[in-house]
Amino acid sequence: MTSSHVPLIERFRERLPFAPGDPLITLQEGSTPLLIAPLLSERLGATVRLKLEGANPTGSFKDRGMTCAVSAAVRDGAKAVICASTGNTAASAAAYAARAGITCAVIVPAGKIAQGKMAQTLIHGARVISLEGNFDQALKLVRELTDTHPIVLVNSVNEFRIEGQKTAAFEVHEDLDGELELLCIPVGNAGNITAYWRGFREVGAAPRLFGFQAEGAAPLVRGHPVEHPETVASAIRIGNPVRWEDAMAATTESRGAIRSVSDVEILAAYRLLASKEGIFCEPASAASVAGLLKYGADGASQIVCVLTGRGLKDPETAIANNDGKVIRCVPELGPIEEAVLGDP
Length: 344
What we know:
Blueprint: H1 8-11, E1 34-36, H2 38-44, E2 47-52, H3 62-75, E3 80-84, H4 88-100, E4 103-109, H5 115-123, E5 127-131, H6 135-148, E6 152-153, H7 159-165, H8 167-175, E7 182-186, H9 191-202, E8 208-214, H10 219-222, H11 244-253, E9 257-261, H12 263-276, H13 286-295, E10 302-307, H14 315-320, H15 333-341
Parallel strand pairs: 2-10, 3-4, 3-6, 4-5, 7-8, 7-10, 8-9
Antiparallel strand pairs: 1-2
Helix pairs in contact: 3-4, 3-7, 4-5, 7-9, 8-9, 9-11, 12-13
């Protein structure tokens, strides 16, 4: 069995808090591609690679942590899991709970979850609660709920989530033979940047970590919570990250930084990745590339941008923000020739 077909917990068991014989709830996550980006490399004067986390089973990096969180919950006898979510955590929790045969409930901000993610969460059978509030309020409520009920919280406050997500750093380190100098990553609830730094430290690596938040949801940049976060990048529309201190420690210790990018810059990077690199990611993923383009390589020659989720997660944004158009045509050769060969 090749590494690409080995469940994440089995592949990295010696570095994860699981023993042989523990129940394993897996969809064969991890082992995602690390792809060179020719256009970005040319622009930056460095070798830029894209870590395609959208290749995970439910289409986002969340599956790395969720296989660990749900496996641990089942090991401990849990019958239900719950999370607050802007979408990807909900989809992942719902899928892994379905695989485990346990109940899943998710609380999402009303009107703030992309339809692709909502579709996933519903089809996997989760109980979806649409909250008249934002993600930070939802997380506060689920934390209170799990304090008084036997339900396992699977947001990134759960240590098993961080343990699973750190495996992406192992893969990058392996693939580049330890030569990575700079990692660019979107930052929302800040669990992922925390996990990458934990993973790099465990293998004795210390690349600089540059985290990027959307300007309208940039509490780590501003230095205080944002009460009403707003950004087109719904996956990082979070005003009070649960891993705040860990994320700041990761960037300080790695000699990196947390910076912000505008929605205009995020969408420009989103379109560039799709039209020039052939990679369709969700808007939040493009924050890593937007940040690299805005702030530069900072002298690094080996760079990885983490693309956290696939583009089909958020079809509405793709349709609303593109340079192409659908050409309507009658079923006749002449008009078809004009449509195919004419000026766009």
